[in-house]
Recover the amino acids of this structure.
């Protein structure tokens, strides 16, 4: 992580980067994942397994991919993101709040669930941010997280590395902002190993945390229940 920002500088750069790419963010995502991210988000939201009309906080909501899926599955979402530009470019996001996820402006236990998609590596203080998510979820509530991963071996691993490290920066640079899409593949270096992520969620008050690989390990999903 020699060339990656840390501390307050990371927060500043992440905010500025997402403000810059907000207008074409979803379009580029669809191309980068061949549209598969929609299927992964549907599964991630359905795994909340909460009653209809449950109130769910979508952390790092961006332009609203998860928020719209939450509405489609008949939840009541509240979107929050560090980037004003992302929220401003969002669609079908009736309630949106700009905030740093490490300091969420919500009362303890005020949500039935939390979702977070592809953002863990962008948080400056990951453990503290997960604890903050745990704080705003009621006992018995649920969390469902989707994040990038790297397949452990074989053709999946080789293909992922070529696509994510070589093709993504080129395509992203052509369609959006070159610097941003050079940073995003590198940002996976911020991610701790999956057992450590599970441990962080346990420390944040979530029990029975389940980790699973998505599509050969191209992504990873973590689901847990807030303890009593």
């Amino acid at each position: 992580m020699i060339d990656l920002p840390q501390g307050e500088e990371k927060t500043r750069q992440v905010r500025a980067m997402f403000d810059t790419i907000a207008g074409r963010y979803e379009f580029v995502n669809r191309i980068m994942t061949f549209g598969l991210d929609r299927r992964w988000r549907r599964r991630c939201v359905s795994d909340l397994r909460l009653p209809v009309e449950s109130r769910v906080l979508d952390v790092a909501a961006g332009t609203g991919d998860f928020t719209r899926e939450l509405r489609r599955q008949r939840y009541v979402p509240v979107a929050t993101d560090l980037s004003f530009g992302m929220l401003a470019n969002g669609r079908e996001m009736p309630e949106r709040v700009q905030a740093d996820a490490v300091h969420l402006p919500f009362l303890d236990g005020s949500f039935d669930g939390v979702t977070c998609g592809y953002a863990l590596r962008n948080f400056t203080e990951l453990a503290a941010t997960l604890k903050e998510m745990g704080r705003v979820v009621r006992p018995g509530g649920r969390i469902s997280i989707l994040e990038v991963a790297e397949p452990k071996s074989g053709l999946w691993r080789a293909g992922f590395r070529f696509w994510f490290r070589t093709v993504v920066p080129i395509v992203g640079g052509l369609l959006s902002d070159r610097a941003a899409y050079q940073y995003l593949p590198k940002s996976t270096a911020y991610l701790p190993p999956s057992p450590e992520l599970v441990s962080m969620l346990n420390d944040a008050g979530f029990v029975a945390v389940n980790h699973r690989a998505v599509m050969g390990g191209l992504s990873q999903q973590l689901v847990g229940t807030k303890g009593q």
